[in-house]
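One-letter codes give the sequence; the fold follows as tokens. An example follows:
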Amino acid sequence: MEEIIYPQPPDVPLTPIINDNTPPPSNIAPASANLPKDEKENTFLVSLKKPDVTMPKRSGYNKIYEICHLGQPDTITGSFPEKKNYYFAVSFKKFHMIRIHKTGHNKIYNYRRSKSFFIEITDQSSNTNDIHLKIHTNDYLMSTAPISYNSTSVLPNTKYQISKQLQHFFSAQRVIPRKIQNKYFNLIRKKLLERITFIKSHEDKNDHHNTLTKTFFNFSYKKYRFYFGIYLPCQHVTVHKGLSVTSLCDLPSPIVKSNHCHRCGLHFHLKYPTKTIEVRNNEGNIVDNDYTCCPNYFGMP
């Protein structure tokens, strides 16, 4: 094996490294001061000042300005408290059939050709657990077992009450498919909300016109017919024959007239019989005239 001989480095002394920490002359400006003026002007400062926001009415498209108050965060964990849930019950209540002509506005009592569902709305309650909303129906196949629903409010608003009752209805029926439910859910809820407005505006009038407003509307799917409406109880005092016990009629009212005039088809003519009022003739003299508050809308004498 041959021996490898490496060349020796030349005998040249290495240049030592000198740390020059001497300060620069006083007449030389720092590098930051030598920047051009344009570069200084292009420097942006970020401000954390809260922008001025107008305070419009917080409804419609302006609801984005509404601030959600989540409460104060916990001092230890720093997390916000969870919203409290309240519960209320929804169930079906079946009303009995009455022996009247089931034509005109009385068609809501006809259980052979259609099914009626009148939704109950409450606006007073001290505790949500005491709220029990009932859907009054003539469909005897519906189960009357109550189902509990949750809410973040002590008293749910009208729209939420209607939504949960419609959800209860669609979960119990067996003829309308899920696709049709999703398509017409908002429409049915909107028409029920409009029906509440129509009823309140009409029954609060103080006049003697024979105009009326229905408490229900029609919804059809194929050969199935439904009547959705707002529940207004009849509340006519009924005296049972041979007994001293009285009861209130709880049948839904199909129509509403002015001066809070509403009753079921069986008791409407008993509550508002013919009465006499004073009117003036063409000559300006006061004469007596027979006036019927609620005429023969139900096929009764």
Notes: Helices lie at 37-41, 158-172, 178-203, 268-271. Residues 64-70, 273-282, 287-301 have pLDDT under 50 and may be disordered.
